[in-house]
Write a structure and sequence with these properties.
The protein is an alpha/beta fold. 31% of the residues lie in helices and 23% in strands. Strand 1, helix 1 (21-31) and strand 2 form a beta-alpha-beta unit. The structure holds 5-O-phosphono-beta-D-ribofuranosylamine.
Length: 226
Amino acid sequence: MTHSLRKPLGRYAVLISGSGTNLQSLIDANERGEITGEICVVVSSRADAFGLERAKRHHIPTAVINHREYSTREEHDAALQAILETYQPDLVVLAGFMRVLTPAFTAYYGDRLFNIHPSLLPAYRGLHTHQRVLEAGERKHGCTVHFTTAELDGGPIIAQARVPVLPTDTESTLAARVQKMEHPLYTYCVHLFMAGRLRLDTKSGTVLLDNRPLIHGELDMEWPST
Ligand code: GRF
């Protein structure tokens, strides 16, 4: 007998620090009915993040959590968790959230915490990925959606999108190409999780799709060739 799939979920939270184009693409996908469930809250680490405006325009509750108001990372993350728990999210989506989270936080949300990183992990963890890719003379670049552990840009990989690096590229043209792929990739991964089709077996660290191990690369996306 096959296992029945987990029932569709209801609510997800999005954590941001900046412009929020990934947030916008999730909002748009929600409004088109492409994601089961709704965004219950947007939390920003900065009061001036444009993503907060995007959320307000769509009547999504917002909160700001300023790390300067907390003396330790543990206190900051406990306060963040307290905000999130008032909304009881089924999934927490990091979308340009520029804070490294504590092991206690990542353990609490371990099997329901997504991140998107602008590189083909495990290559180019950390900041300034586009510039570093250009300096290294890479021919391929991209982005990765992964479950999140306490390790910087670490955790089981769900899906990647690849883009070419062109000889004429600057940091901003390359970043724009990667972002074009981030949006559909993240939306699709959030959709699969919220539909109850994607999950993490925390004991083994295996990503499961429809109750069987995800095949390496099966959710990946490629830049359309001309
Ligand atoms: C994206 O490039 C994402 O990969 C990284 O932060 C950026 C957020 O961009 N983690 P935006 O705020 O969604 O436009």
